Hints:
The protein has helices at residues 14-26, 38-43, 66-72, 77-80, 85-98, 150-153, 178-197; strands at 2-10, 30-33, 108-114, 120-125, 130-138. By secondary structure, it is of the alpha/beta class. It has 2 domains: 2-144, 3-Layer(bba) Sandwich (FAD/NAD(P)-binding domain); 148-197, no CATH class. Strand 3 (108-114) and strand 4 (120-125) form a beta hairpin. The longest helix is centred in the C-terminal third of the chain and has 20 residues, at 178-197. The protein is flat, with a radius of gyration of 20 Å. Mean pLDDT is 86; it is low at 189-193.
Amino acid sequence: MEKTTNLLIIGAGPYGLATAAYARHLGVDHVVVGMPMDFWKANMPKGMYLRSASDWHLDPLGLHTIEKFLEIQGLTAGDIEPLSLQFYLAYAQWFQEQKQISPLPVLVQRLDWVDGNDGRFRAAMANGETISAQHVVIAVGFKYFKHLPPELIERLPAGRYMHTCDLVDFRHFGREALPDLRRASKCIRMDRLAQRRR
């Protein structure tokens, strides 16, 4: 079975949901595929806090913002900042409901450009179906782009390294490793800031 749409949005995380909201506002026929906020649910440490404040939100129209979400609950930014992962996921769910975004919970296995009179993309889905689209937005997030450099891996003992995409539970590090992790994270942030100012 093949679905046809003007716009296929691959990914149902923050960028996919924001894109879907804007497409709906513009009246663009679209389909969103992916598991809503799956990376955030499965690959972020429990108890994590976001660096972003409550003025950062998903709505390109500025209507269903974090501030609005707080307002309907009788809360202020001061009550919830810094934003917890749990709070952000609740906001994303509310945003999805307000914008009536219903992603198809299936992953794309292959995406091809099909030559022809109308020149379309064809996405082969994990459930065996296909989606044909005139345009595609790929908003899959970091998970699929993680890279462990071979020259680094060959120097490290097996089981002593992992990508941050897979680092969800810090308990196995032990308390003595946490200061080193915090220091390393701060050094990386400072280096990036220095690079931007050059």
